Amino acid sequence: MVKFYLSQSAVFSFSAIFKRLLFAASALLLITPAIAQQKKDYTLLWRISGKGLKKPSYLFGTMHVKDKRVFGFSDSVMLAIQKSEAFALEIHPDTMISKMFSTLADRDNRRGLRDMLSPEEYARLARRFKQKNGYAMGNNIDPIQLESIMRPEKKSPDDKKTFIDAFLYGVAHGMNKSIYGLENTAQHFDGYFGANSDIKERIRSLVDDNDAEAIDSEEEMIKIYSTGNLNKLAAYLNLGELNDDKLIARNQVMLNSIVSHIHHQTLFSAVGAAHLPGPHGLIELLRNAGYTVEPVKADFTGVANRFNTDYTKLNWKPYVDNQDGYSFELPFTPEKTNIFLGLPSVIYTDIANEVFFGAYAILKGSDTKPADESAVIRSMFNSFKKNQANHIISNKPVSVNGIKGSEILMRTNGDYLRFRILFSNNYLYLLYAGTQLENLYTPYADRFFNSFKTFKITPKANPAWKTFKNDTGAFIVHLPVEPTVMVRNVPSPIVTQSEPFNIKVYMAMDSVNLMGYLVRYNDYPKGTYLADKTKLFDALGNEFKGKGTMLGKPHKIMIEGYEGREVDFKLLDKYYCRIRLMARGNRIYLLMKQNLEEGKALPPGDDFFESFKLIPYKKPQAVTYAIEGTDFTVTMFEKLRFIRDSIPDYRTFLKKSLTTYSTNTGSGGVYGIEHTNISKYYRAANADSIYSELLSRFVPYTDSLLKVDTVVVDQIKGREFISQNKSTGDKRRQRLFIDNDDFFYMATHVADEELFNETSNEFFNSLKKVKDTKHLDLSSSKAAMITADLTSTDSLTYSEAKGALSYYKFEKDELPYVYKALRINYPADSAYDGPGDKLLNVLNAVHDDKTIGELTALYKRPDINDNLKPSILKTITHVDRKKGYQVYLDLLTSETDFKGRYNYDTFVPLTDSLEFVVANYSRIIPLLKNESYRPGLLYVFQSMIDEGKYDEFIRNHFGDLTAFANADLDKYLRKNDSTASDMYLPVYYYMLLMKKVTGQPITAAFTAKLVKRNNIDEQLLTAVTTRIKNKLAVSDVVLNKLLDSVAQRYDLMATLDKTKMLARVPAKYKTQAAFAKLCVYQNAVTNNDDETPGQLKLLGTVADKGKLFYVFSYKYYYNEDDTPELAISGPYTPGSPKLDFSSYHAYEQQAEKGVNWQQQAKKMIGELKKQNEEEQKAAVKK
């Protein structure tokens, strides 16, 4: 479990934040099964050589614990790090910390524990939290915080101060080795903490005290790892864990990263030991790739003990902030972030020594408006003191390099923090260090604190502002002084995107008038683009959430033809700001003006916003790129990015593709070309027909097709088409080219001004064939080749031929090839969707007068695979309903020992022709003896019930239909073999029959067995509703158990309503609001494939023509953009107790950003009424 903590309740909670951040950063270096050492058979370190490597690289297996027993490294481990030019962990620590900073800075309160837990679970967890930690959990704690604090730990006095991986990183960092990460940081982080992770389930697991079990498990793994024997580790993990799909996928990513480095420089890779062994482990993968991988001889002479992470012996680097007038020294470069209250802080995190240092500065006055030194320091101290979570241990005056102030030692919820509050030149400076108390007064920490210096910044009056021009960013703006530049790399939230957002920030301060100005711009990382600018604008509020108060709503602005938003904002609820955000194609600009005096409004008088102008893009450097795997070239830009299809889809005539992206550095526009090959099995009249077929695929329903032109480039004829997004108005230019079997798709994501400019035209007209390619005959028949290749022993040829059956359109004159191919037994027919099944699908589309005869003969063949028989039967009735049904029934009843595993298709013809079932009942009902037939056959008779025309027929044959009911129920309840689950559907269908045909002797005992089991997940609801329909007794205990489950409540209430027993439902579930909420829940589940809505909340009501409509919001957990759904239920007569179960009377749509929920709900009433009317008409017809 990863430890991570951020105290949201404490005003100043650096220690809590960064202590957990250090833990989490190091913990996420290894998200691997936690698995260090007797000297015999030590095989944790492996040498990688061969395949042209001039020097060996190394692979080492680690474990994420601090236990001293796992730190007994062999001499070779440290010597290998020393000899290597670079060091790699699973993820790059600096990038991990940057990702955490951005996450903390952008944190929100959308994931509340109360939404994840029931009230009882929440209360239990809160009690357990206080017992474990000695202070209350609080209402605003984030799940990430909680998981970190509640992590089971077995502490020992001789524990190391950090983990193996973090320690080795510190050793390598101290040797100035290049540091790499083998995996995508954002994907790692989001996979563990993100919306699609299992964090909700992990939080629920914290409710119960299972610390002892977790600690015992970790102890067992420490003992195994301590032997250093990888074989013992592999045996402990077992093949099931080593063959985990996620582990295998991650191993492949790490392999690719390792290989990409070791041919350029020697590399020491430290990864979780579970990644090394097994058939899919890194050792075997490297060997399969042609490398020699062998264990390094292990000696234990104490050499490893000479290596440490004492950074006081290094040459420290000065960090100078010329804008705020201060400097200090650190061993490595710190990072600038606004993690603390939105203020620009400088932070250095040392995961190897589990300590952090930092500083920030706030301008509190000017030469003309000087601040009071003692008042500033006193105000800061009081801010600490007034927070009940903070305990001031000491506060004493301090003087460093001539600067006076206060030094404070503080404890916050068990964490320690050392502060220095200093004042100089009208600036408040805050220096801090944190983690364990023993780390705060070491030579390491003292060197940082005592290196701090300040210097005077001379403010300059600027009656004439400067015009700042940025050719790369393509803008000009007026500023009071030359701006300072800060570049931030923010990890991309796009899981598959490893490159971060590169954000350039230009800041200027008017020190006389105490005004701040900021211009920020960024392009999207190469290979990505801004797909929907409205979502960008909608996110403006989220970017500054938690950093102050938005004053009003963002309003639309236009800047030189480009759309944007403007809003006023009160930063930290103290400083008035104005913000403008605009999108120019794939480039985003943000401008901010801030009054640096607390509580003072923005004064008029400068033209900062008005002076901002766009200038023409800087022309980028073009390069000629030879498209991989082809004889073609195209003009792109530098730093290409490639996306390869990792899994081939043989069911399409276009093969695996390679997409190449590059970014126009002058504009941020994205240019891409995708290449694939047309299958040799594909048939088309000509290339023009392919263009016609594919055009619609490239123009989604959200866009309008404006124009299609034929274009010729380098004698290759293609199509150019222009589309426009219906909601945003953004246009796209795209081209398709086909030359023999080469297929190219070219597209850009650019601003309108770039759509047809010189750069764009150069790209689209640059496709060039460097030599002739093999001719592809598109129009000839491929039937003989496809059917022949189905028998190929080459797996690729076979897979492509089988896939061709999904897209190749057979003609009648090609049917002999299909018949011949069906006579062959294919090994894959033992599985669903094998070649035989595909060939039968062909006959559904095209057939002749010989088809039924061929299928009949095929069915009767003694060597036919039984799994094909259901598809044969279904196809026979599809080919010829009149003749086929009789043949179908003759074949179906001709045998009793049917061993097919996929019987659904067997009875589809009967479901499609219920009259045929009635007419041939005497021949069909004996089939019920076959146990594997029962689910499908009983479903046929359930279809007769649903139809409503066969009630008398069902009643007359109830005894036949339930002849095996008791035996099937007993088998289902025993659950003593793997086939017990096969009885789930028969048991369910029997009870549906009992609901239709009431008063039968079998019903009471049958349903009583299920009620006695009292398992809400095992058909308890169906059993109870069946008993109610049959007027059999149901206890209040069982009834209330089902009613307390929102997933079961509606169906039970509907049954009670029909039987005039709604009085048994507690009053709290019968209020209009409660019933409306239930209807919305049911509607959401029904409309979204049983996806459960979360955070379902009543917003209020709206009225229409004297009727009430209840309005709710909720979210689906799969919804990545976190946009809530808005739903209404109604109409309801005010004060009426009547509940209408004829339909759900609910309607949903996505909540519109920036629209009042009442306004949107009123617009939805018309759609709900229309839906209600349609449902009533359908009910009448039924």
TrEMBL record:
CDD domains: Tiki. One of its GO terms (biological process) is proteolysis. GO terms for molecular function: metal ion binding; metalloendopeptidase activity. GO terms for cellular component: membrane. It is a single-pass type I membrane protein. InterPro entries: TIKI1/2-like, TraB/PrgY/GumN_fam. Keywords: Glycoprotein, Hydrolase, Membrane, Metal-binding, Metalloprotease, Protease, Signal, Transmembrane, Transmembrane helix. It comes from the Bacteria. It is found in: Membrane. Its cofactor is Co(2+); Mn(2+). The keyword Ribonucleoprotein does not apply. Its main location: membrane. This is Uncharacterized protein YbaP (TraB family).
